[in-house]
Design a protein that fits this description.
2 copies of one chain form a homodimer. The first copy, chain A, has about 325 residues and is an alpha/beta fold. The first copy, chain A, is built from 13 helices and 14 strands.
Chain lengths: ~325, ~325
Amino acid sequence: MSEYDLVGIGNAMVDVLATVDDAFLEEQTLDKGAMTLVDTDRASEIYAKMPPAQEVSGGSCGNTMAGFASLGGKGVFIGKVRDDQLGNVFRHDMQSIGVDFFTPATTEGPQTGSCLVLITPDAQRTMCTNLGAASNLTPKDIDKDIIQAAKVVYMEGYLFDPPDAQDAFVEAADLSHDAGRKVSITLSDPFCVDRHRHAFQMLVADHTDILFGNEEEIKSLYQVDDFDAALQHVRGHCEIACLTRSSKGSVILSGDEVHIIDPLPLDPVVDTTGAGDQFAAGFLYGYTQGMDLRKCGEIATLTATEVISHVGARPEANLKELVERELG
Amino acid sequence: MSEYDLVGIGNAMVDVLATVDDAFLEEQTLDKGAMTLVDTDRASEIYAKMPPAQEVSGGSCGNTMAGFASLGGKGVFIGKVRDDQLGNVFRHDMQSIGVDFFTPATTEGPQTGSCLVLITPDAQRTMCTNLGAASNLTPKDIDKDIIQAAKVVYMEGYLFDPPDAQDAFVEAADLSHDAGRKVSITLSDPFCVDRHRHAFQMLVADHTDILFGNEEEIKSLYQVDDFDAALQHVRGHCEIACLTRSSKGSVILSGDEVHIIDPLPLDPVVDTTGAGDQFAAGFLYGYTQGMDLRKCGEIATLTATEVISHVGARPEANLKELVERELG
């Protein structure tokens, strides 16, 4: 088994993007800007009413793996699709960007997971996620050889929504640690944290070396009202914490080391989707290359800035060239 | 000798404020927004051409002591005035707000120091400082009993401009430490740091327990281009560092403790003069009352916000009541 820099475990999702007006959201009683979990029937109902759409491979962790590969890192993805057309789209897109993806597709049960992304004229994105086949990820899909061949395992918090995937999460963390590897997670979403707060707290305290979270997520995790209070809670709970603050930049903590990384100027911000995913990609790339934490934070800031300069959650630029040009 | 919370050592200055147009600055070849040191002749020349003005006690450390007293702290000021009218104004203003001021006035030499503050219609302040009698502060003025009766000695970086005052600075630090007290300084101004960088670096490394500096000052001190790099330099060089970042809030470091204090919302910001002075006042008030660093930072943020909500470098609100109302 060849050596990997990073193995990502996440919900394998295909985004289905369409532009709609506000009236459509009202008819479908959807909260603008929110991510809602929906079942297959509800997803079909909304999809039937949607205008012509565009399909793009997505998923939070999938987006991170795309950025990681664009930086030149060697990655492999674990996630569950079905043996259907969208499953083929997802697999093709992963492999075409150089990310290995061996997890077998399911041959029965729900279709490949999809996320209906409804873009209104004010550039807001309202998302309806049908986890579909992604829900069927179980500890059996966590390939020991792959986990132990990677320097770092990275897992998205959204995996906590389907119950079997939570077990897969812990299984992967244990396997990784047994091999002396590092475990990183992202909290993904403040509502996801809210749904599974206790499980997340245990995971961060007991299984996580490198934590990613934005301000709202970390405040939700510890149920505090302000950033500094959350920061005090997270210290000492994991080896490295990367706390992102949108236009306020980010804070990286490790033991008694702290780095405050300012944002890069960008005007206009076109679409913030994927900012956290690409921050993690940039940071983990630097980390797996043995760079110091500050340099990791600088790369992360650069890759997150690239993704918010255009529509879509995966990079458009060649990130390896971008980093070489901007950071030398 | 009664016990003090804080003894402040600074340039005793009276501000002379007038509104002028841009043409006036051009005629006098003054850089808008900058603080320039001028001698008595030059100050007289500018003053002669200025429109009717308003005299207000000032000085960076004097402003801090005013805020400290408004918070309910017991303070004493050391600084040099002459036995002239502006000297009497300065002394009166200190004593009337409850700050002791025993340093004898000089009976010869230059007049009481003054700062011509030229306010242009765009609300910018262009300052011409004539240190005057303040320059005559010497180690002899550093009253051992007063220094050793105060929990903390606080000194402004502007004291580094007149040469004898530098010696007074070190003398005060040594006396304070001999009595087991704490020494705090503020860097005051990036240009002041630039003029005396080596002396400041030695002072921070060898004599300072609590350092105050804004982003530009701390970057100037270590000759680095960005905030995070400056932050790495300052760590370990003093017990507590309070780094202020204007609209980005502040960062407080102590050993492996770090607090990131967000700014309070304020719209409009009327006049930023005195923000650093009142931040120090609030922080040192909390510190001398034995509060934890986060609470100190919250008080500092509140008092700094108060002073930028109106024109002038000293508080208008009763800060003790403000803190009780806002922070409980």
